[in-house]
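Posting for a labmate who doesn't have an account.
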Amino acid sequence: MFDAIVIGAGVGGLASAIAIAAEGLKVCVVEAADEPGGKMGRAVVDGVEFDTGPSVLTLPDVFEDLFAMADLRMRDLVTLRQPEPGFRYLYADGAVVDVYHAAADTIDSVRRSLGADAADELERFLSYSKGIWDAAAPVFVYGDAPNVKSVLAAGPAALAGLTKVDAMSKMWGAIEKRVSDPHLRMLLARYATYNGSDARSAPATLNCIAHVELGLGGYGVEGGMFVLVRALVTAAEKLGVCFRYGTPVSGVMLERKLFGERVLGVELEDGTALSAPRVVANADVAHVVESLLPAKLRHGIPVTETPSMSGYTGVIRARRRHGDDARVAHTVLFPRDYEAEFADIFDRDRPPAEPTVYLCAQEANHGRRGWDEEEPVFIMANAPAEPRRGHRDDSVYRTLGDVTMARTREAGLCDADDELVWERTPRQLATRFRGSRGSIYGAASNNQTAAFQRPSNRVSKVKGLFLASGSAHPGGGVPLAALSGRAAARAALEQRA
């Protein structure tokens, strides 16, 4: 008998387990895979380990707080890196913009590359972006899942502040209103993809992401992002959390009470029952509703129907470069028409004809050592999620992969004989993470009410069931998944056993 069971050892599940165990409760994490991490995974080829998921860490204070719950210091377990420049943006017309850890250095870089007017526009835009973050973060990021009642209850001062979130404008429109340089517009619109959304229809509130990365800073992790996963497991185990890997769950056990259903625990696929009055599901909400709960409950629990972007991802065993030719931590190769990419993905439901290519040189970014003469370079191109029923033909993803690699080689970002040693298509991602349809970031934020439509961390119809993932509040991305786990833990701790 446990006080709480966490289904899934992704970032949200690990955060929940730590926060609940820190209050003295007995917690067990059951994970279908053979190791933790979820979408923040890793692979090993010829003795070299590399990350296969997120490449940038933002809002590290979220994790510092988690480690403190276990009486640990993050800096003793995880070393953050600030590679300079952090990002290099390459444009079809030959323009190059470097982004640095400090906003002032990035503004100077934009001045050198795009001119004084563009630099001034970026400086003003970052002030606007910070205003959105300061107003929105307490309600829509760090707090419990918002609803109209809770927003109104926040009081006049909070309501006045929320007018700064620019929710009634569209993200792309708000950028165009404030920025005239086309290169800078593309750079800022790309932040919509950080939660898999469409910059043309997402609320301008998402422009706060520019402040999070450019203003607060994005980091690498010494040794790779999976080091953070291992450190979170260390913190959980220090608090007495037990882990069972290779242990898929077949369902949440319930009993009928006078006013609804109550959690009794979980049933494993091998038939074993684990008892607990609290269950935190660190899985896509669609999987929880459609596969882990009885059919009678499925229509009463909302599932967001608009998945975020998926992506074709791979790792290149690339010949190492040195000196002025050395790879920067992150490189973004833009297409000629960036809006057409969003139209392909969200309007035409197909991979982009000319995809933006993102690369992370893991030696430069994380200090991950590669092979004797080659380094691991993560590569990604955005794509739509898998259809709700059925799947796309594999040839669609072969074409996307070929186009992505061809664009990378044509831009001189890898050599003709560099080998792709690992890859994952949206279809494979959907198979690995059930209920996701291959969505990387949970639900997309493609309308003004998306924050209110996202599932709450507490399942109101089932006492004792809580949700912690990128498809629940507050949304997708590494720190937000951890905050989802924290919110689910708060709700679980409020419940009496």
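Reply:
Got it, the structure tokens are right above this. The chain has three domains: 4-38+59-74+225-305+445-494, 120-215, 309-432.
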